[in-house]
Design brief:
By secondary structure, the chain is an alpha/beta fold. The chain has two domains: about 200 residues, Vaccinia Virus protein VP39 (Rossmann fold, 3-Layer(aba) Sandwich), CATH 3.40.50; about 60 residues, Helicase, Ruva Protein, domain 3, CATH 1.10.8. It is built from twelve helices and nine strands. Strands 4-3-2-5-6-9-7 form a seven-stranded mixed sheet. The chain has a two-stranded antiparallel ribbon with strand order 1-8. The chain starts with 9 loop residues before the first helix and ends with a helix. The structure holds S-adenosylmethionine. The site of S-adenosylmethionine (SAM) has 23 residues, from strand 1, helix 3 and strand 3.
Length: about 280
């Protein structure tokens, strides 16, 4: 078997889907990568190297899983679809016998423990839950030091956006709590089966030390939610919902060195943290 044939192409994906009688569902974001070059590009951009343990959310038919195994990583794969989860070890055994794979059949949003202490997260995430899944894994698994995810293009741009940008919002500020994010290239919709009706983008992150305690994070995230629920309003108004009144919000903002007339889109995550701390 050549190296090329150890990854899944359109023919292998078609055969596996037929074998499992898979009708990909939109609800589970089931768009499978059918292009080996794209898989290799994702794995290269992720920086994952031999000997590393990687958690992959939503391995599907195994396209990316085989790419990660190809560079010598160990993979812990979390898949919600029972048929896909059951087939994955069989596929891996066929294409890369003996490769280190652990499959967990579960909803990734409910996972609070992982075997093997993965230090990286690499995934082609289901579109509709990409941000909550990312935040969940960053919250529960501090050993994940870096990673790369493929998400819907607009979502990826939002995650990596910086203050002042029109697309800067709650996902951008919350993601910045955990790390530094940058986009790492667009991916054509043609590399998927079925072809989705949106474009995708790669987003890479490096974790940084969390700027505050867990209770400060919770307080900061509730301020972020309030600020962006009414993003056009000044913070003294939008934050009054969680801080009691607009007078109290103004006092807290001033104590934190933030203008009460500012809007959420102008603030960094550290500004939000200062507001949370100003009440302590
Ligand atoms: C975009 S596909 C990616 C499949 C594969 N990694 C690839 O690149 O071809 C998303 C995968 O996530 C799975 N999935 C959807 N929701 C999930 C959840 N809550 N927890 C775990 N897996 C999920 C789907 O069944 C599907 O296999």
């Amino acid at each position: 078997m050549t190296e090329q044939s150890k990854l899944l192409g359109p023919a292998e994906i078609r055969d596996l889907a037929e074998l499992l009688d898979i009708q990909p569902t939109k609800k589970l974001g089931q768009n499978f990568v059918i292009d080996a070059n794209t898989v290799r590009r994702i794995v290269k951009a992720s920086g994952v190297s031999a000997g590393q343990t990687v958690v992959e959310v939503g391995p599907g038919l195994g396209s990316l899983t085989l790419g990660l195994l190809e560079v010598g990583a160990s993979v812990v794969a979390v898949e919600i679809d029972r048929r896909l989860a059951a087939q994955l070890p069989v596929t891996v055994e066929l294409f890369r016998p003996g490769a280190p794979l652990t499959v967990i059949t579960a909803d990734a949003m409910t996972i609070t423990e992982l075997p093997g202490e993965p230090t990286s997260l690499v995934a082609n995430l289901p579109y509709n839950i990409s941000v909550p899944v990312l935040l969940h894994f960053l919250e529960y698994f501090p050993q994940i030091a870096s990673g790369l995810v493929m998400v819907q293009s607009e979502v990826g741009q939002r995650i990596a956006a910086t203050p002042g940008s029109k697309i800067y919002g709650s996902p951008s500020v919350k993601a910045a709590w955990y790390g530094v994010w940058r986009t790492a290239g667009q991916v054509s919709r043609q590399v998927f089966w079925p072809v989705p009706n949106v474009d995708s983008i790669l987003v890479r992150f490096e974790r940084r030390e969390q700027p505050g305690t867990e209770s400060e994070r919770l307080a900061t995230f509730s301020l972020i939610d309030a600020a962006f629920q009414q993003r056009r309003k000044m913070l003294r108004q939008s934050l009054s919902v969680v801080l009691g009144s607009s007078a109290e919000a103004s006092a807290r903002l001033e104590a934190a060195g933030v203008a009460p007339t500012a809007r959420g889109e102008e603030l960094t995550v550290l500004d939000f943290l200062s507001i949370a701390r100003s009440g302590a």
